Amino acid sequence: MELKGSRILVIGGAGFIGGFVVSELLKEDPKEVIIYDNFTRGKTDNIKDSLKDPRCSIFPLGGDVRDIDVLDVAMKDIDYVFHLAAMWLLHCKDFPRTAFDVNIQGTFNVLEACIKNKVKKLIYSSSASVYGDAVEVPMTESHPFNNKNFYGATKISGEAMCTAFNDRYGLSVIGLRYMNVYGPGQDQHAVYSGVVPIMLNKIDANETPTINGDGSQAYDFIYVEDVARCNIAALKSDTNFGFYNVGTQVQTTIKQLCDTILRLKNSNLKVTYKPYSADDARQLVKNRIGSAEKAKKELGFAYKYSLEQGLTKLIEWRDSQKVDLLSP
Predict the structure, then answer these.
(1) Are 14 and 58 in contact (CB under 8 A)?
(2) Element (H or E) spanning 54, and its range?
(3) Which of 196, 261, 276, 313 fits as disulfide partner to 280, beta carbons 3.0 to 4.6 Å?
């Protein structure tokens, strides 16, 4: 599928992953890329370079998936849509009602607007959280949904609605189940930051990095630029419906992650370990590594950056932004 001359709406386009999706899209010679974002999590820094391109703009009326009429106006004459807007995992844990409004009802609004405006294809950002803890490694896309948290529940609901809209209206939609995404643009100081920025912040402050549990819990870490490339591959593919893992199929324990970061930072700090809280232990995912075979075969996607290469790029970015990173 050629994207040349097309008009594309990126919902959540100023976010961590969305900013990279916008940047990758502009390489495909579209007519226009419009960013639809309410800037709750999105930042202008994530899209400042893309906005220098006259083909790229921010939708002027706002950008919340809960605003049905505004969303409908934004989709007029749009060919393709990326839906990346969502409340994140720990936000959903603390604010489940808002999580429902944004992640579930908001996704329904996006799907409905796509049908109303005859959008040709939608790329939906799902999550490996739908799987819960692994019963097989690597997890294929047929792995059972063992999720126990609110965030995963909203993504399961989103996938189910994508399936229903495809069946009822013939909407072309691909859902992407992201593994553990990291890289530049990720919020480095928020309460809900991921494990990678938390470790880097500790080391940069010359404080002992802390690992919950014994560090044997293992995950699939994928660099954000690779995730963006998979989004573009999904749109350009001839596949009109399906759900795909977006990962490396490489297993990395939290201890290995921490050791790698310490080595790249030339740090001699010693790691400390602490037990999980009772609440965290109850919902703990100890092992989640995704099979990359289906995405490679059907979307033509393969990751480019190893964990060490991706972490090196992230550290270089943090160093270049040092003044901004010193304070939340």
Answers:
(1) yes
(2) none
(3) 276
* Domain ranges, ordered by start, for the chain: 7-178+224-247+290-303
Alpha helices, DSSP H, located in the chain: 16-25, 68-74, 89-94, 96-99, 106-116, 150-169, 195-204, 224-236, 254-264, 278-282, 293-299, 307-320, 322-325
CB 303 within 8 A of CB 248: yes
Residue 31 CB neighbours (<10 A):
12
Q: How far is CA 276 from CA 119, 213, 216, 283, 284, in A?
A: 45, 6, 13, 10, 9
C-alpha pair distances (Å), 311 with each of 170, 188, 199, 282, 324: 41, 14, 12, 30, 19
pTM of the entire structure?
A: 0.95
Asked if 76 and 32 count as a contact pair (C-beta separation under 8 A), the reply is no
Q: Of 131, 89, 95, which Cα lies nearest the Cα of 290?
A: 131
Per-residue pLDDT of the chain (328 residues; tens, 9 = 90+): 889 999 999 999 999 999 999 999 999 999 999 999 999 989 999 999 999 999 999 999 989 999 999 999 999 999 999 999 999 888 899 999 999 999 999 999 999 999 999 999 999 999 999 999 999 999 999 999 999 999 999 999 999 999 999 999 999 999 999 999 999 999 877 666 689 999 999 999 999 999 989 999 999 999 999 999 999 999 999 999 999 999 999 999 999 999 999 999 999 999 999 988 877 777 778 899 999 999 999 999 999 999 999 999 999 999 998 745 555 4
Q: Left if phi > 0, otherwise alpha if psi is -120 to 50, otherwise beta: which for 85?
A: beta
* Contact predicate 119/107, CB 8 Å: no
Domain 7-178+224-247+290-303 is of which CATH architecture? 3-Layer(aba) Sandwich (3.40)
